[in-house]
# Entry
Amino acid sequence: QVQLVESGGGLVQAGGSLRLSCAASGRTITYAMGWFRQAPGKEREFVAAIRPSGGNTYYADSVKGRFTISRDNAKNTVYLQMSSLKAEDTAVYYCAARLNIGVTTSSSAYEYWGQGTQVTVSS
# Structure
């Protein structure tokens, strides 16, 4: 059993930055980790993913160059550094884990999910 808890969300002006954290209660060193988001009335969408080693990452086109995913396996924590935020980034952000070294953008492939943290970007 793996439990994930996100934190770091909040209200920020467009162009600003936020850093989200995802703390895991179970050992996730062998898990690929991902970040997803869901805006009101929209389906959950992929944001970023990282392999267990932390060396390889993948990003949705909409966030490339602005968001950075990283992990600290010693602390069992995954981060999402967000910069140059836009109003369209407003959503609940979720972290997720899967027992696989590969990266996937499919939410159905992730077996563990956090409760989410709200990110609101204002103009």
Remarks:
- The two ends are 40 Å apart (CA to CA).
- Residues 80 and 107 are 17 Å apart (CA to CA).
- The chain is about 0% helix and 50% strand.
